Amino acid sequence: MKQIQLTVLLLCAALACACSPKGPPTLTVMTHDSFSASETVIRAFEQANNVHVVFLKSGDAGAALNKAILSKGAPLADVFYGVDNTFLSRALEAGIYTPYDSPLLSRVPVEFRLDPQDRALPVDYGDICINYDKAYFSAIALRIPGSLEDLLKPEFKGLLVVENPATSSPGLGFLLATVKHFGEKGYLDYWQSLRANDVVIVDGWETAYYTNFSASSGHGPQPLAVSYSSSPAAEVVYASSPITDAPTASILGPDTCFRQVEFVGILKGTKHLTLARKFVDFMLSRQFQEDIPLQMFVYPVNVDASLPKEFTLYAQTAAQPAMLDPAMIAAERDKWINEWTAIMTR
Predict the structure, then answer these.
(1) Which of 33, 112, 173, 276 is positioned for an S-S bond with 122, CB 3.0–4.6 A?
(2) Pairing relation of β-strands 52-57 and 26-31?
(3) What whole-number distance in Å separates Cα of residue 300 and Cα of residue 126?
(4) Are 250 and 127 in contact (CB under 8 A)?
């Protein structure tokens, strides 16, 4: 009798174990390496939806997209964030996304909705601009250049550092701004003139900003550097000692800044479609959108999202940014980079 009771108890325990929950499902979100979000914000989504979110950082935007395309038959993630408008057409042509008409898109201006089929949904934007060292220009009473043409003047000889567009996202953005402003027939002439005016070219943003730029390094030789319009706000936030004004500002003349828009999409083949849709909605919600500026120093696309005071005081966006059709960028990007390389690095 005792043996029968023991057997029954063991069977019930086994059934209870088999029927007990195995924990929340895991939602995997592929991103570029620059992605950042507050832990408390992500935790709020996890708790509200009983899910565990894992972020798969996969290199820069181009490298991450390559991984998403190569693995589209067996996707590495459920959601992919980080494709920008310089790679958007390539992502759409590769067919990696499942369309999703999020209800939160009604709070996003149409200018950011570059995919009419809602496969890639806009999340944030930022302007790649030329930043200048306020103290430098004030000390020598030199007026600040207001246009791309101004940079060719003798007084700015050797004062500008830019990034190589073949190896740098800001460098590519600035190249695209010159294509937009001068056209395909004129942008190379402009770059040749910049070269004659001793423009300095480095491989990446960190070298340009932290080694060459005089305002950031304190001893760099160039008071003009291609960076972001949000960089002045970052200078204040990350200052080693509290400061009341940004030491830098951005040149915001027509076509001097390239507007970069970043997107999120649900990867085809996800086994968690409902959760993926909820996460996309979450990225477009006020909670996530208001976390974006001080995490990634870009602007939210949701018109209801409030900006932190550091952005309202020290960062600006261009009134007339340079923008090109993503399809045109996809078709011509490699050619433009190769042509630039041929005349600027020989």
Answers:
(1) 112
(2) parallel
(3) 9
(4) yes
pLDDT digits (tens, 9 = 90+) for 198-242: 999 999 899 999 999 999 766 899 999 999 999 999 999 999 889
Residue for token pair 């960089």: 231
CB atoms within 10 A of CB 98: 16
Count the neighbouring beta carbons within 10 Å of the beta carbon of residue 197.
Answer: 17
Contact call for residues 148 and 199 (beta carbons, < 8 A): no
On the question of pLDDT at 7 being above 50, the answer is: no
Most confident segment among 58-72, 112-126, 217-231, 235-249: 112-126
**Pairwise CA distance, residues 277 & 97, whole Å:** 12
**Rounded mean pLDDT of 262-277?**
97
Beta carbons within 8 Å of 211's beta carbon, 6+ residues apart: 202, 217, 220
* Other beta carbons within 10 Å of 232: 26
pLDDT in tens, 179-198: 999 999 999 999 999 999 99
What CA–CA distance (Å, rounded) separates 109 from 122? Answer: 10
**CATH numbers and ranges of domains, the chain:** 17-125+260-314 (3.40.190.10), 126-258+318-344 (3.40.190.10)
- Global pTM value: 0.88
At 346 the pLDDT is: 76
Residue 62: band (very low, low, confident or very high) from pLDDT cuts 50, 70, 90: confident
Q: What is the CA radius of gyration of the chain?
A: 24
